[in-house]
Amino acid sequence: MPEPAPAPPRPNRHKMVLLTWVGIWPTITGVLWLVLPPLLAHFPLPVVTLIVTALVVPLMGYVVMPFLTARCRDWLHR
Predict the structure, then answer these.
(1) What radius of gyration do the chain's Cα atoms show?
(2) What is the spatial distance between Cα 52 and Cα 49, in angstroms, rounded to a whole number?
(3) pLDDT of residue 7
(4) pTM for the complete prediction?
(5) Could you give the CA distance from residue 65 to residue 74 in angstroms, rounded to a whole number?
């Protein structure tokens, strides 16, 4: 039975923080631009924040960060 390949090294934490910011700023901006005006007219700010974060967190976890980490893989592991 062949040995499993070793796991790749973890990316530098500072690079991951920067990449997360690069992904989260436009994601939050887009979500706020789309949903904030109609929501603020009907709900208090804590409910709006709940709705915005319920949209942003899955987008970041399943769409934005996988896309960015795949595109920046070489840079992340330098």
Answers:
(1) 17
(2) 5
(3) 79
(4) 0.80
(5) 15
